[in-house]
Specification:
single chain; 6-stranded antiparallel sheet; 6-stranded parallel sheet; 32% strand
């Protein structure tokens, strides 16, 4: 797959350690919702980042990059973008993209894994507004779920979309779900036989979730996540 040169249109803070990047490619990037791009740092150094925008809006590429002081892998990419004002990418890559089979969808994200589910969510609401979609997004605290207000407003607009923020450390008065994000799903579903599940986050979470979901009758063909190509 050939590389595509992109202008770095903007880099803005979503949290203290998460940045929203808007890239403008020289021509539209063909991808499916739920795929990722590779940022070309060198001939043998290509770094994956999930695409956060829907595929119907392919004249830009939106990324949500978590880059704290201990994450050189991501901060080096941001530094290259800031210093050069442009970057080379390729994509879309990955096999865990949106499958339109009419089944209700459960989207599960830990941290910046949200960008993967956000692309799928936007595409699903655009193409299949009558298909039920439940999004579970987990973080240490509510502020880590940087688009929780926008998602709540989106859920108010779409009768078939429900957003469940899940926090590990709840503030006093919190009425929502707490704990591990995949456990929040298990608390709502005794049986997963008739849904599709899309998941992004730490590999450890994805592995435990896979085992627990299969035990709740989720078909192997109905579980999607880039992590499963490696674990």
């Amino acid at each position: 797959m050939s590389q595509i040169q992109c202008q770095v249109s903007s880099i803005t803070s979503l949290t203290e350690v998460v940045y929203k990047v808007i890239l403008t490619p020289t021509h539209p990037v063909e991808f499916h919702a739920g795929q990722y791009i590779l940022v070309h740092m060198g001939d043998n150094d290509k770094r994956p980042f999930s695409i956060a925008n829907a595929a119907y809006n392919n004249e830009v590429i939106e990324l949500h990059i978590g880059a704290d002081e201990n994450n050189a892998y991501a901060t080096e990419v941001l530094d290259r973008m800031r210093n050069n004002g442009e970057i080379a990418i390729s994509g879309g890559h990955g096999e865990a993209f949106l499958q339109s089979d009419g089944k209700p969808m459960v989207l599960i994200a830990g941290g910046t894994g949200f960008s993967y589910t956000y692309s799928i969510l936007q595409q699903a609401l655009h193409d299949h507004p009558d298909t039920p979609v439940n999004l579970y997004w987990g973080g240490r605290k509510l502020d880590d779920l940087y688009l929780h207000e926008a998602l709540s407003a989106l859920a108010d607009k779409h009768a078939n979309f429900t957003f469940y923020p899940v926090v590990e450390f709840a503030e006093e008065g919190w009425q929502g779900k707490t704990g591990w994000v995949h456990q929040a799903v298990l608390s709502d579903y005794d049986d997963l036989a008739e849904v599709q599940v899309y998941i992004a986050g730490r590999f450890e979470m994805a592995k435990v979730a896979r085992d627990d979901f299969f035990a709740r009758n989720l078909p192997q063909t109905s579980l999607f996540g880039d992590a499963y190509a490696f674990i």
